[in-house]
Amino acid sequence: MKQSDLLIFNSKGIYCPKAQVYIDPWRPVNKAIITHGHSDHARYGHKKYLTHHSNVPIIRHRLGDINAQGISWNEPFQVNGVRFSLHPAGHIIGSSQVKVEYKGEVWVFTGDYKTEDDGVCTPYELVKCNTMITECTFGLPAFKWKPQEIVFEEINAWWKSNKEEGKTSVLFGYTLGKAQRILKHLDPSIGKIYTHGAVENMTEVLRPQLQLPETHLITKDTSSKEIQGSMVIAPPSAHGTPWMRKMVPFETGTCSGWMAFRGARSRRATDKGFVLSDHCDWQGLLQSIKESEATRVICTHGYTDIFSKYLREIGYDSSTENTDYEGEKEDTATTETIQSA
């Protein structure tokens, strides 16, 4: 990157020198524009946080008493002559793309994003630009998502089958975003829905913004008998812990884009894998870039080298930059095992 660029990457994050503002910085700064509430993008220690209104209660819940200002979609604000605006990213509730404009030059930082309307968060909005900074968490051709309607038909059928066999269904998904997406599309006519404390706490923060089915928090007083046949939503970290004993007999399922690969389910020791991601698949990434009309693309977090090389082959000015963002983690997967899958 050039020092004259509108946005540059430095040791603290993505920086706009003309405005002296950072976007999703990973080290403490004075003024930070935050795209969404996941911990790799919204970190503690900044003096001032600027984010979408619906993300304010999320980051306050996670980070405590912070100086956070909410901004509406497409509401421009200027800092030292640089014009900024937030646009829906479709990743999770309150997730934003950041548009940066100065003297006719337009950059967009997508943050994490997906183009499928999940019925929970504000759908992704196409933003045209000269330079696009894109994630590529799933930047391989092997990633191709089914429509979510099909995935949730599979999930509800799995739950119904388990209930008929007298088993509890335990479904793992991230507490922020994935858990609420799952809840939104479960069929409560099948039975009761129970939650792990981490899922319940975050869901309660978000209920004022969403219409979700009733859930029941699992406590030390909750008996195995009353849970039997129900659906339990829990974070991946709960898998294999003593907390799971209360669910016996149970079947486990995991919702993740990584379930698209053979071996991912066994690595996570889960009975069933559902391919459900809050990120774009390969085609979603390419379509978004094409429709943005950007001629320059900077790739961050994910299969950056592979994806950027492909973009160069089809005519883009493309490069990669290192960040502290993690995307959707698959701790045990390697590039070698994934490419050979």
Automatic annotation (TrEMBL):
<dbReference type="InterPro" id="IPR050698">
    <property type="entry name" value="MBL"/>
</dbReference>
<dbReference type="GO" id="GO:0004521">
    <property type="term" value="F:RNA endonuclease activity"/>
</dbReference>
<feature type="region of interest" description="Disordered">
    <location>
        <begin position="320"/>
        <end position="341"/>
    </location>
</feature>
<dbReference type="InterPro" id="IPR036866">
    <property type="entry name" value="RibonucZ/Hydroxyglut_hydro"/>
</dbReference>
<dbReference type="InterPro" id="IPR026360">
    <property type="entry name" value="Xnuc_lig_assoc"/>
</dbReference>
<protein>
    <submittedName>
        <fullName>Putative mRNA 3-end processing factor</fullName>
    </submittedName>
</protein>
